[in-house]
UniProtKB/TrEMBL annotation:
<dbReference type="InterPro" id="IPR035965">
    <property type="entry name" value="PAS-like_dom_sf"/>
</dbReference>
<dbReference type="GO" id="GO:0052621">
    <property type="term" value="F:diguanylate cyclase activity"/>
</dbReference>
<dbReference type="InterPro" id="IPR000160">
    <property type="entry name" value="GGDEF_dom"/>
</dbReference>
<dbReference type="GO" id="GO:0005886">
    <property type="term" value="C:plasma membrane"/>
</dbReference>
<dbReference type="Pfam" id="PF00990">
    <property type="entry name" value="GGDEF"/>
</dbReference>
<dbReference type="GO" id="GO:0043709">
    <property type="term" value="P:cell adhesion involved in single-species biofilm formation"/>
</dbReference>
<feature type="domain" description="GGDEF">
    <location>
        <begin position="183"/>
        <end position="320"/>
    </location>
</feature>
<dbReference type="GO" id="GO:1902201">
    <property type="term" value="P:negative regulation of bacterial-type flagellum-dependent cell motility"/>
</dbReference>
<dbReference type="InterPro" id="IPR029787">
    <property type="entry name" value="Nucleotide_cyclase"/>
</dbReference>
<dbReference type="InterPro" id="IPR043128">
    <property type="entry name" value="Rev_trsase/Diguanyl_cyclase"/>
</dbReference>
<dbReference type="InterPro" id="IPR050469">
    <property type="entry name" value="Diguanylate_Cyclase"/>
</dbReference>
<protein>
    <recommendedName>
        <fullName>diguanylate cyclase</fullName>
        <ecNumber>2.7.7.65</ecNumber>
    </recommendedName>
</protein>
Amino acid sequence: MEPEKLDGGASWPLILDAVELGLVLVDADARVLLWNAWLARHSGVSAQTARGQPLAGVFGAGLSASFLTALSNTLRYRLPVVLSNVLHFCPLPLYAQTPADAAAARMPHAITMTPLVLPPWGACCLIQITDSSRAISREKVLQRQSERLNREVMTDSLTRAFSRGFFDHFYQQEFARAQRKGTKLSLIMIDVDYFKDYNDAYGHPAGDKVLIAVVQALQAVLLRSTDKLARYGGEEFAVILPDCGEHKALAIAELLRTAVLALNLPHRKSAISNQLTVSLGTSTLKAGQTSSAQALLDAADQALYAAKNQGRNCVQSRSPQTVAAPA
Ligand SMILES: Nc1nc2c(ncn2[C@@H]2O[C@H](COP(=O)(O)OP(=O)(O)OP(=O)(O)O)[C@@H](O)[C@H]2O)c(=O)[nH]1
């Protein structure tokens, strides 16, 4: 195609009015030279009204201070500026529907200001405005999806207790916090007694229902939002008790044990009772004690093992080894 055929000539205004973004050209005094149809649609101000007016006058009090500062900087220092919709949600009074009424929510948008020198006006600023509504609603959908996935990863799908993944993360975090602040931290490990026999006697689906009931009973005992109950694996559960000392942890473990007993779930294959029971092991990091997360976990595990050896349906406690603080 020959170069002159590329020159749209009289077609340019039609093209500028057809684009799906707002275009304003202002001169060095911020007077409107160009105002396209998109902008007229979303501002409720026609090109006829806007042309020749100072931009601040066209929008009146609706203009944000950040927009005015950016415009004056672009005109004065001839530097391009971007006002993203993240930091500047709605700098201009633009609306999805026109005429804009005061009650309508502003349309979120992003703005790019480009300094230009154009004959016959000289120094100008081209302002491009894009509608960010779609990008924002896409972002919201993605954020909701990511929150849902996070919740799923954090939650055990059968019992709705926290997952092992959550436990590992939260425990490390709480242990580090307790060491840093010199505060107490307790752990309780809980294991359902003769659960293999329960499954054998009543079937796996009945075993699943029992695990759900056990978690609900355990959860009802834990009143502080900071106390977290997680499924540690199979029929084993763990409770993290921040700022909780040895005696209190033992008392809570006892409450957890009796809460499961109170469910009155028959277990005809249990060697120690005719109903379902749990064994529990506690361990506590004392205030100011230096230890390791693994040592505290090992101690709770040893306590649970001791409870099993003691005859099950009971609570045992073990202290974690003190580990010298890193130099
Ligand atoms: N129904 C059901 N059973 C499970 C689930 N996860 C693990 N189990 C079963 O739990 C049983 C655990 O058995 P063991 O580790 O031998 O423990 P136990 O029979 O409780 O014996 P003690 O702990 O010594 O009292 C196994 O038979 C697993 O199949 C689950 O999600 N649902």
